[in-house]
Amino acid sequence: MTEKQTQELLDWYDANKRDLPWRHEPDAYHVWLSEIMLQQTRVEAVKGYYARFLAAFPTVADLAEADDERLLKAWEGLGYYSRVRNLKKAAQVIMHEHDGIIPASPEQLLKLPGIGLYTAGAIASIVYNLPVPAVDGNVLRLLARLQADHSDIALDQTKREFAARLLRVIPQDRPGDFNQALIELGACVCRPNGVPLCGICPLQENCIARLHSLTAELPVKSAKKPRKIAHRQLLILRFEDKLALRKRPSSGLLAGLWELPEAFVIPSELILFEEHAGTAVHIFTHIEWHMMVRKITLREELRGECLVWITQEELERDYALPSAFADFRKMMF
Ligand code: SF4
Questions:
Q1: Mutation test of ligand 1: which of 142, 182, 191, 214 has the most ligand atoms closer than 8 Å to its C-beta?
Q2: Half-sphere exposure of residue 308: CA atoms within 13 angstroms, side-chain side
Q3: Which of 66, 69, 175, 242 is the most buried (most CB within 10 A)?
Q4: What is the tens place of the pLDDT at every residue in 149-193?
Q5: Tell me: the pLDDT tens digits for 96-131?
Q6: The domain 228-331 belongs to what CATH superfamily?
């Protein structure tokens, strides 16, 4: 990228950047939190979570001391819950080893749980103005098209190669804006879905994919392995004004969150009413849950099966229920 192109990119960013809450006060905690939330979630969905999370845990110190149930509740619905567990672990390291200050150097940032090359680059450049690239999926797509590079962008080697190219051209005076401009252009113009909006792209004159009509075939991205399918038979178990939930194991998928209990044999004399509640499919990264749910209203409260019985108010206030069960939420109470 030439100096002229860099300037055109920055000018475009200055004129077109989205007004996002974490851009208002780009301190390290805000940028870190927003980048972690944005890893698997759309900007529009993140905005509300970001505000609520910061209200609940306004500082790194608050996050380090957060109660786990409260933390998971604040993340409820965002998915990929290891992100929030790692946020807390990293906050504890920051408090104990860095006097509560989020480090600036990418090397130190990379040692924190949940922080990879992209997030380290984003924090170092946006907050601390260090000339370090931040290569996410948007930047990979944009660069692959700009340079008509057919490398597989799913490979770490490609990410490292693209980062090395950016390191040579990143402007010393505005590294954070440069990274954000590339990300923004990739997200909004050289889009992930739908045809790229080349007509409004500030880099169109030098884009090889556009000039050679290669935008539809770039970037190259190898297919992921097919997901496993798990068939789950679940219960909405009710007794009077209470619902039964079960806690998931403390490691693995959705660790420590709450869920509908797996179907088990219930003596018929205890059942007041039974109906089919529905089916739903929820897709995770490596697995799909195909769920079939029955709703059973009991004559008396069942003990055992690791069940907890809670009211609607308690569910809404204290219990983090993953969005996998969202389709059944209306039927729970
Ligand atoms: Fe992407 Fe089109 Fe811009 Fe090239 S000209 S970078 S394909 S939006």
A1: 142
A2: 14
A3: 175
A4: 999 999 999 999 999 999 999 999 999 999 999 999 999 999 999
A5: 999 999 999 999 999 999 999 999 999 999 999 999
A6: Nucleoside Triphosphate Pyrophosphohydrolase (3.90.79.10)
